[in-house]
Amino acid sequence: MAYQSKYKKGFTTLELIIVIGIFVLLFSVSVTVYIGFTSKENRELAVGTLVEALRFAQSNSEAVNDDSKWGVKISTTSPTITVFKGSSYGTRDTTHDQLTTFSGRLTASGLTEIIFEKMNGDTFTTGTTTFTDSNGVKDVQINGKGTITY
Questions:
Q1: For residue 147, what is the enclosing H or E element?
Q2: Least packed by Cβ within 10 Å: which of 36, 79, 108, 123?
Q3: How far is CA 139 from CA 42, 118, 129, 149, in A?
Q4: At the top level of CATH, which class does the domain 13-149 belong to?
Q5: How do strand 70-74 and strand 80-85 relate by DSSP bridges?
């Protein structure tokens, strides 16, 4: 006759609670890391998009494309960056607008309109554009010679 245990096989409530607690802890840590990673990537992508737009506008101004100045407008109300042809965003030739977007979780502040001079690519609009979200800040600076630092 085989030996039969008087205890039933299975998990106790305490063991289940411990296992569930470990899963919850691992899940919360991974979500926190994921949010931080995507937040940083969104800021880096927005900076890359702005730098690319600035360089494109500057090169068009240096080449005197369409015999015009070129500029960049960063919207503070919607997540957009616009490369435009003209002496200002308000008086631009809208047929040449090139619109790109960045993450809606970011806020752009600081310098929002940069105009590049024909032939030399210099700018009189100098300063810093800052992209901010709940997890950090990333700056893009431009000086009078059109040098971009980020």
A1: none
A2: 36
A3: 13, 26, 6, 8
A4: alpha beta
A5: antiparallel
Give the integer Cα–Cα distance in Å for 148 and 150: 7
pLDDT, tens digit (0-9, with 9 covering 90-100), for 61-77: 999 999 999 999 999 88
Give residue limits of the domains in the chain. Answer: 13-149
pLDDT (tens digit, 9 = 90+) per residue, 27-59?
Answer: 999 998 998 888 899 999 999 999 999 999 999
Rg (CA), the chain: 27
pLDDT at residue 137, rounded to an integer: 95
Distance (Å, whole) CA 79 – CA 110: 14
b/e sequence 116-138, b meaning 16+ C-beta within 10 Å: bbbeebbbeeeeebbbbbeeeeb
**How long is the chain?**
150
